[in-house]
Amino acid sequence: MSETLQLALLLIPCLVIAIVFHEVAHGWAALALGDPTAKERRRLTLNPIRHVDPVGTLLVPGALALFGGPVFGWAKPVPVNFNRLRNPRLGMMLVAAAGPATNLLLATLGAVALGLYAGTLVAPPAGVSEYVFAGLQLFILINGFLALFNLLPIPPFDGSHIVEGMLPRSLAAQYAKLRNVGMLLFVALIAANWAFPDAGIIEKVVGPPVEWLQGWFFALAEWVAGAS
Q1: Rg of the chain over all Cα atoms, to the nearest angstrom
Q2: Per-residue model confidence as pLDDT tens digits over 145-162
Q3: Number of structural domains in the chain
Q4: Which end of the chain is more exposed for a tag (fewer CB within 10 A), N or C?
């Protein structure tokens, strides 16, 4: 139980920051491109209370972490009205990309902070808190995973909006119909991953690029440590 509590104390803040910044980035991008819906509904705030979904932000990722699954979650989606964007087709893609891009930026900042704070990735040296050390590593991993997971071309993930914007209009209209069954596809993916853990469906799709990305961020942290 002590290890479970320690994991929760590290996981929850990292996940809340990653998800809240992800959602707010969508709203700010939409505002910059002509849609003030998120601003009108007071969602352009970093106050987690206005964004946290008890199930998607806390319960689901907490359970996945405890049972050894891939850690991800979601917040209350920031409202975006694509029809209010100055260029709806391009704007839809840019607004969707803003969330994952923000997670990559957060992971980069986490890598820089890890390099400056710890000076090593092997083990926390004397005078360095092992919880801060582990928390920064977890922060990098969570943001990298959320960025890539959200780029999956499955509605309602950000990747689906990017793909839709890239397709010819006739194909985009057909692809958009997947939104009606997007959550069912998502639930089926999670259920299949849970029912067949040895198959590692999610891990095999997202795992390799996440590991590559994590290696890049750790290399950045090592460079920062050596340069500082």
Answers
A1: 18
A2: 889 989 988 888 899 999
A3: 1
A4: N
CA distance 21 to 104: 11
The whole-number pLDDT of residue 110 equals 94
The pTM of the full predicted model, rounded to 2 decimals, is: 0.84
Catalytic residue among 23, 40, 164, 203: 23
| Closest to 224 in 3D by CA, of 102, 121, 135 | 121
pLDDT single digits (tens) 82-101: 899 999 999 999 999 999 99
Of the candidates 224, 4, 2, 3, the one whose C-alpha atom is nearest the C-alpha of residue 114 is 224
Percent of the chain whose pLDDT exceeds 90: 35
23 is catalytic: yes
Residue ranges making up the domain that contains 10? 2-227
Q: Contact at 8 Å (CB) between 132 and 117?
A: yes
Q: Where are the alpha helices (DSSP H) in 167-200?
A: 169-176, 182-195
Q: Which two tokens stand for residue 227?
A: 């340069």
Reference 31, options 47, 20, 19, 45; nearest CA is: 45
